[in-house]
Amino acid sequence: MHAWVLDRSPGEYRYGEVPAPPVGPREVRVRVVASALNRMDLWLALGMPKPPVLPMVPGCDAAGVVAEVGEEVSRWALGDEVVVNPSLACGHCPECLAGRSVYCASWAILGEHRSGAHAESVVVGEANVVARPAGRTWEESACYGLCGLTAYRMLRRAHLSAGETLLVTGAGGGVASAALAIGLQMGATVYATSRHEAKRERAVALGAAASFPSGEPLPVEADVVVDSSGEPTWASSLGALKKGGRLAVCGGTGGGRVELSLPKLWFGQYELIGSTMGTFSEFDELTRLVAGGLPVAVDSTFQLAGYPEALARLRAGEQFGKLVLRH
Ligand SMILES: [Zn+2]
After folding, report:
1. 322-326 vs 165-168, strand pairing mode
2. How far is the CA of 224 from the centre of ligand 1 (A)?
């Protein structure tokens, strides 16, 4: 099949032929209609992390049509329109059956640990696809997976409730955009930060009550802070918590080492939550929200051949929301 491929890491992506992955008994092949970029696409090419196998096809997010099913697959038929859940798990071990698929022994991220979706087709377990949300475009269907799921699980684990205050750092990033939309949907008052004035304005246009420059002491207090930047925003994120506040962390794009004052932690009665991706049921719940009209921020759409231009836009940090490839 044709795909974008990384032959070595660090390295450059090239468009070429790779063998189509075989379909196991409990797996489905999805012919990709649209796939979305994530920062993972950049990290892989930099060798951070190095892909476990080479050549590697990048791409964590996809929506498409079921084109082949394994002999034991019962839930899906050829032609079904689906979204791929990139939080891969076996679907039948005790952890998966107990609703904790993120603790599955074979848990992996599509496009990081397993070859991904910027290809003609992608193969995943039958538990890792859901019916495409009705009424949404292919582009929207393809781009809420990885970041939306991460944001949804963080807010669920942080017990964000209606009437509370949520602070989202790094407005415009995938997780931040999703957290803004989901937080509003949950009935929270949402504040955002960004280094870029245009992104601060955009966050307010999308429903944030106010927005502030990144990394500076903030004039608001939050019940919940969602942070994916790590080191550069750590002090201001922690400093923005109300008593009893919850700080949820899913990434450290700006650095992964931070300092923590323990007296501040206990006198503040704070909770720190490390979180990544989400479970099958969280993906179902998120997909229902998307079907119900949850805003999905699509920055721009490129043809599959335009992947290098899309990567350049991502690398420059110019986007607000997701970059999508139409296959
Ligand atoms: Zn499992």
Report:
1. unpaired
2. 30
Kindly state the tokens that stand for 40: 């993972």
**Mind listing the pLDDT tens digit for each residue in 85-133?**
999 999 999 999 999 999 999 999 999 999 999 999 999 999 999 999 9
CA distance 128 to 26: 10
CA of 296 to the centre of ligand 1 (A): 29
Average confidence score pLDDT of the chain = 96
Spacing, Cα 185 to ligand 1 middle (Å) = 30
Amino acid letter, 125: G
Instruction: Select from 109, 141, 131 the least CA-distant residue to 33.
Output: 141
Task: Answer whether residue 215 shows pLDDT above 80.
Answer: no
pLDDT in tens, 243-301: 999 999 998 888 889 999 999 999 999 999 999 999 999 999 999 999 999 999 999 99
- Residues 87 and 65: their CA atoms lie apart, in Å, by 19
Please give the average per-residue pLDDT across 146-174, as a whole number.
Answer: 96
Q: Please, what's the largest Cα pairwise distance for the chain?
A: 58
pTM of the model: 0.95
Residue 24 Cα to ligand 1 middle (Å): 15
Ligand 1 center–CA 101 separation, angstroms: 6
Near ion ligand 1, which residues have CB within 5 Å?
89-90, 93, 96, 104
Residues 248 and 180 grouped into a single domain: yes
Domain harbouring 6, CATH code: 3.90.180.10
* 89 CA → ligand 1 middle, Å: 5
Residue 70 domain-assigned (yes or no):
yes
Q: Which domain holds residue 69?
A: 2-144+296-326
Number of domains comprising the chain: 2
